[in-house]
Amino acid sequence: MPDSNEIRRLSAKWATGSGWPQRLEWVEVTGVRGWTGQRFHLRYPIMAVVGENGVGKSSVLQAVASVYRSPKNKKARFASDFFPDTAWERITNATVSFAFRQGDKGSEKSLRKPGERWRGNPQRPERYVEYIDLSRIQPIGARVGYTKLVRSPHKEVSATLFDKLRLDRFSQIMGRTYDLARMALTDVHSKRAVPVLAQQGATYSGFHQGAGETMIAELLQVDLPQHSIVLIDEIESSLHPRAQRRLIRDLAERCREREWQVVLTTHSPYVLSELPPEARAYIMQVGTARTIIYGVSPEFAMTKMDDVAQPECDLFVEDIRAQTLLTEILVEQAPHVIQRSRIIPYGAASVGQALGLMVYQGRFPRPSRVFLDGDQATSVGCINLPGDDAPERVVFEGMRAHNWGSIHQRVGRPFANVADACGRAMVVSDHHEWVADAASKLIVSGDILWQAMCSEWARTCLAKDDAVKITQPIEDALIGLGPEALARPRSASPSVAPPAAVSVAPPVATAKAKPKSGASPSGPLPLFEL
Q1: Could you report the per-residue pLDDT of 104-117, keeping only the tens digit for each?
Q2: Is 285 part of a structural domain of the chain?
Q3: Do 21 and 141 share a domain, yes or no?
Q4: 332, 461 Cβ separation under 8 angstroms
Q5: pLDDT value at 399 more than 70
Q6: Which helix (H) or strand (E) holds 419?
Q7: CA distances, 446 to each of 64, 297, 443 (Å)
Q8: Which of 49, 219, 331, 359 is deepest in the core (most CB within 10 A)?
Q9: Same structural domain for residues 152 and 238?
Q10: What CATH number does residue 82 fall under?
Q11: Integer Cα distance of 103 and 479 in angstroms
């Protein structure tokens, strides 16, 4: 889970079910830019949309921007502004459907373009929408109207000074102390505001600022009303990693105080890691088919968007603990397999169940296998890791039964210290804390201790039959065999037929008695939308 207090406070308020009397619940797009009825759910006050270029992230923002009428003092936006007819495209038989709440009342409406014109605009609910597109990253001097300002003699005639709170927010996000910030107007243009900053005795304008400074200054100077919806395209643009994290934390605080909804697009692992799993939605496109997967890990998202590694087979696991366990099993039992595979943590177990169904349906472009932790119920297209419990419990209990094996030699600590630290850690009620608890007593990193334990467990505790259940499906994938054998456990009766491939969202996963770290506290996440 994210560590920032701002996200924790926002999650706590959201979990109560109170607040946010104006709420967009989902938007569904058909007949536009390859969208064929996929539904995007807003299940957290800040939703991050991630995916490769061209999969439709900006289309999600534009669809959301289309479904509300603007207040009378705000420029109106329409679906036709975002999805126009051109010399190359004609939009027909298009629909943008949506569900929303106003107070205790929930409704569903749609915008439709059966022919030449969009229908349904007057029936839209009213709400303040702030749409921040990529024009913000254009340098001040290159923007329309600002070139004239530079080329003409000019002077500042008025300015809106940032108050202390706004200036403190600006300094916090940028990671340095500013003496003042203001949005200034000149005698050349009465509506072309220029950000002006001062720090360490120097004053400089947007013509001499960094792009990140200008972007954050312009973002913070806007006073958005209570219950607004804020849409930001590629939020990380021009910002270094720490500034990205601080901006998300600032947005979280504003969302909690003013009950905003924020939808943003990103390619940044730093943005994703600041948000809880339910706030992440990955758009995957295979051929012409789009799938929206919720609850993905930053590692999964970055791996799916990166092409540096060239493995023959993708192996998906819940988290880094499971990643280490699977790695050590393969190193011990099938080293030829690990050299040809890439192991990717995906996040919540419900994501793994969604991926397993995709594997079973043959929807991945390369051979893939999906692993669930041993304490999860069996699921179509998935393989359970050895044991009937969480990896930490399986490994700790197995090694205790083998008197801790040679772990002490692997980590360079006395046997008595290792036995005592690991034994005491198992008294802690939350098994997710066992590794950290033991590692702190032994003064080694948790990763080193866990790798040593998994390696020793795979060597001394893993039964041959259990190892084959892990290695054989991967070997099958590498030689080109399909996933049909994953439809049921290998021990199942041959008379039990595998389930048919489905074309709708699969059933929700069965919740654990105690959710894993990183899972939604309210239960399993929805799987995916087709």
Answers
A1: 899 999 999 998 89
A2: no
A3: no
A4: no
A5: yes
A6: helix 415-425
A7: 43, 20, 9
A8: 359
A9: no
A10: 3.40.50.300
A11: 57
